[in-house]
Amino acid sequence: MQVVSVPAAKPLGRAGFVVGRKALPRAVDRNRLKRLLREMLRAVRPEATALDLVIRLKRPVPLHLFAEAVAETRRLLAEAVAAHARSRP
């Protein structure tokens, strides 16, 4: 997983998800992963409202490892939020 973050252009940050067909060929699998990522983002959203985010799947993930992919994204997102908090004056 890859998380790209920049300070939000508007008061409320946005999030985008990139899950390519090469990584997950079946649309149902791509949609399921994006749903899981959106739900995780809702849980941590109060801390991440000051960021615009792009969350990207870099390589294929088997279905039984979706939970691990979401956990890795949560860890990367926490690092991005912490880095943003340190950079603010």
Which key phrases capture this entry?
elongated; Ribosomal Protein S5, domain 2; alpha+beta; three-stranded mixed β-sheet
Walk me through this protein's architecture.
The chain has 89 residues and is an alpha+beta fold. It has one domain: Ribosomal Protein S5, domain 2 (2-Layer Sandwich), CATH 3.30.230.10. Helix content is 49%, strand content 18%. It contains two helices and three strands, in the order ββαβα. It has helices at residues 27-48, 66-87, and strands at 2-7, 15-18, 51-56. Strands 1-3-2 form a three-stranded mixed beta sheet, covered by helices on one side. Helix 1 (27-48) links the parallel strand 2 (15-18) and strand 3. Helix 1 (27-48) packs parallel to helix 2. The longest helix is centred in the middle third of the chain and has 22 residues, at 27-48. It is elongated, with a radius of gyration of 13 Å.
Helix-strand topology string: EEHEH
Mean pLDDT: 92
User: How far is it from the N-terminal to the C-terminal residue, by CA?
Assistant: 29 Å
Roughly what fraction of the amino acids lie in strands?
Answer: 15-25%
Major beta sheet, specifics? 3 strands, mixed
Q: How many separate domains make up the residues?
A: 1
Share in helix? 40-55%
Strand order of the largest sheet: 1-3-2
- Under CATH, the topology can be stated as Ribosomal Protein S5, domain 2
* DSSP E strands, number: 3
Number of helices: 2
Shape: elongated
| Low-pLDDT segments, ≥5 res | none
